[in-house]
């Protein structure tokens, strides 16, 4: 029997169970809110690390402020007020180890996201700062995703759709579909030669 040759360049698509585990997110922007929502839907505890430089808002701005720190996303503020997630003041890479020591005493940390490195952010975190934060996470064996810096990412996230097979008020089903470019951005995959990097996966999230 002849088997097809192995062609590299793909990703191992995994549906990660986050139940009873913690997701850490560095940043309070709209992308951070999206990551938080996805983690909450996966039954993960979510902790937002709001850096001090995000709290130094300019005079006249209306960013919601909690305990002396500025939250860029209204959704994060609302979910924090509703008790769905926690927001902790974050003073930078040197402060991260003490936060991790406190957090891991109550639950294990599965993944971490750094979202304030997004291209176009008004206060974009530098590569050096992101790398230092990532290194702290890596010493704890925590998988890290750093927005718009692929070289610092342990994984990327597919674009996902969660199916609903019954009309409201029925909840969404556990069946989800994801599409990924295996790292390259959508702009890089806009030409036909790059479309071969697309992968599609369907998961029932552990249910038969």
Protein topology:
Blueprint: E1 22-26, H1 30-41, E2 45-51, E3 65-66, E4 69-70, H2 74-81, E5 86-90, H3 93-103, E6 109-114, H4 127-139, E7 143-146, E8 159-162, E9 176-180, E10 199-203
Parallel strand pairs: 1-2, 1-6, 2-5, 6-7
Antiparallel strand pairs: 3-4, 8-9, 9-10
Helix pairs in contact: 3-4
What does the model show?
A hairpin with a 2-residue loop joins strand 3 and strand 4. The chain has four helices and ten strands. It is an alpha/beta fold and 208 residues long. The strands form three sheets. It has a five-stranded parallel beta sheet with strand order 5-2-1-6-7, sandwiched between helices. It has helices spanning 30-41, 74-81, 93-103, 127-139, and strands at 22-26, 45-51, 65-66, 69-70, 86-90, 109-114, 143-146, 159-162, 176-180, 199-203.
């Amino acid at each position: 029997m002849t088997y097809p040759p192995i062609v590299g360049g793909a990703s191992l698509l995994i549906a990660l169970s986050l139940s009873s585990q913690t997701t850490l997110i560095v940043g309070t922007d709209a992308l951070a809110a999206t990551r938080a929502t996805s983690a909450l839907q996966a039954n993960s505890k979510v902790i937002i690390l709001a850096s001090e430089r995000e709290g130094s808002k300019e005079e006249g701005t209306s960013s919601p402020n909690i305990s002396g720190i500025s939250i860029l996303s209204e959704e994060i503020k609302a979910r924090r007020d509703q008790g769905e997630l926690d927001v902790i003041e974050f003073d930078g890479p040197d402060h991260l180890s003490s936060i991790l020591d406190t957090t891991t005493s109550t639950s294990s940390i599965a993944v971490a996201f750094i979202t304030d490195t997004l291209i176009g952010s008004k206060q974009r975190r530098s590569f050096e700062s992101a790398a230092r934060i990532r290194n702290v996470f890596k010493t704890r064996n925590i998988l890290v995703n750093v927005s718009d810096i692929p070289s610092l990412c342990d994984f990327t996230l597919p674009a996902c759709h969660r199916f609903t097979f019954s009309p409201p008020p029925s909840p969404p089903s556990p069946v989800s579909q994801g599409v990924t470019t295996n790292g390259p951005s959508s702009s890089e995959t806009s030409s036909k030669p790059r479309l071969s990097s697309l992968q599609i996966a369907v998961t029932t999230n552990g249910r038969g």
